[in-house]
Amino acid sequence: MVTSFVILILGFAALVWSADRFVYGAAALAKNFGVPTLIVGLTVVAMGSSAPEMMVSASAALAGKTDTAVGNAIGSNITNILLVLGITALLRPLSVSSSTLKREIPLVLIVSLATWYIFSDNYFSLAEGVALLIGFVVFIGGLIIVSLRAKNQTDPFVSEACDEVPNDVPTKKAVIWLVIGMVLLPVSAHFLIDSAVDIAKYFGLSDLVIGLTIIAIGTSLPELAASIAGVLKNEDDLALGNIVGSNIFNILAVLPFAGIINPSLIDPSVANRDILIMIGATVALIIMSLNFRGAQRINRVEGGLLLIAFLGYQGYIFSQVG
User: Fold this and answer.
1) 206 neighbors 9 (Cβ within 8 angstroms)
2) Per the database record, which ranges form the Sodium/calcium exchanger membrane region domain (predicted)?
3) What's the burial of 44, exposed, middle or buried (CB within 10 Å: 0-12/13-18/19+)?
4) CB 22 within 8 A of CB 51
């Protein structure tokens, strides 16, 4: 069991590092090939923090662990809002000034409700997976079109996303990092899933619970790091944007892997418990960030409440084990 825990930790570390290198190489290569910085920033860079979830969900689905793949996506969204945003707001209150974020935050609720509808029959089909993926393409296309039309306006989230695009990276170096990332991502995800399954069996955890807890928290580490870095640099919109964008990507780009690769019955707890928690957390995010009573900011008290809710959710899940 000690070996499985060591492999799990190393797997997470390799997954996060390889995802970062993959995104770095892909973004630099796209920039060198003449793709506008705005498009690179809103696609490749913005999706970077969700790369670990994508690879883990795909690996889990290929291994026949659809509940783990689904739990990873749903659990990551819950973790992003309750844990990542909670810790970030405790460090420093977050102001919301980006018009892009004000459009995207309600969209998180819309896609969350759509997810609940999809899983209400406790089955995830190929058609439903494809529908979510089509929604992702439409979302990215719409985001780019709206941002290009408003390119003369100063939107802090868009400008901060563009600042994250690497500049002056030689094409050869970009290709090397891209290839390294492409090789290590699936390998690290494979070992991570195998070790997580061993740990789950040892402690009597279901495939769903292991996805909702250990794996979800581990794959949310890039969002935590990015959000903390954002507030430390006074880039509040980028910090919040990492969470909002990741939650949309997790539903529209990560979740489809489970349905497309391995359509199957899903643990009823997903629709009856976990997605409802995700929706509740999203509603809390909307109320806190789009405060119509005054300043649009998430304060430390609200951050503390989010963190307490996360601990309560985790405690409840483990109390149901066995």
Assistant:
1) no
2) 4-141, 174-313
3) buried
4) yes
Please give the Cα distance from 61 to 77 (Å, whole number). Answer: 19
pLDDT at 186: 85
Q: How many residues does the chain have?
A: 322
The helix or strand, by DSSP H or E, that contains position 124, with its residue range, turns out to be strand 123-124
What pLDDT shows up at residue 46?
65
Tens of pLDDT, residue by residue over 128-144, are 999 999 999 998 888 77
* b/e code 273-292 from CB counts within 10 Å (16+ = b): bbbebbbbbbebbeebbeee
How confident is the model over 301-314, as a mean pLDDT? 94
CA distances from 228 to 10, 138, 198 (A): 22, 30, 32
pLDDT at 99: 64
Tell me the whole-structure pTM to 2 decimals: 0.86
CA dihedral over 141, 230, 222, 287, signed as positive or negative: negative
Contacts of 29 (CB under 8 A, 6+ apart): 171, 174, 175, 178
Amino acid at 110: I
Tell me which amino acid residue 59 is: S
Is residue 154's pLDDT more than 80? no
Q: Which residues are bridge partners to 264 per DSSP? A: 124
Cβ proximity of 106 and 307 under 8 Å? no
Q: What is the pLDDT of residue 199?
A: 84
- Cβ(165)–Cβ(284) below 8 Å: no
Helix residue ranges per DSSP H, the chain: 2-32, 37-40, 46-47, 51-62, 66-79, 85-91, 99-119, 126-149, 156-163, 171-203, 207-210, 216-219, 221-232, 236-249, 256-261, 269, 275-289, 300-319
Predicted pLDDT at 155: 58
Q: How many CA atoms lie within 13 A of 50 on its CB side?
A: 27
> Which candidate, 22, 84, 124, 114, places its Cα nearest to that of 245?
84
Work out the number of other CB atoms within 10 angstroms of the CB of residue 318. 13
Residue 146 predicted with pLDDT over 80:
no
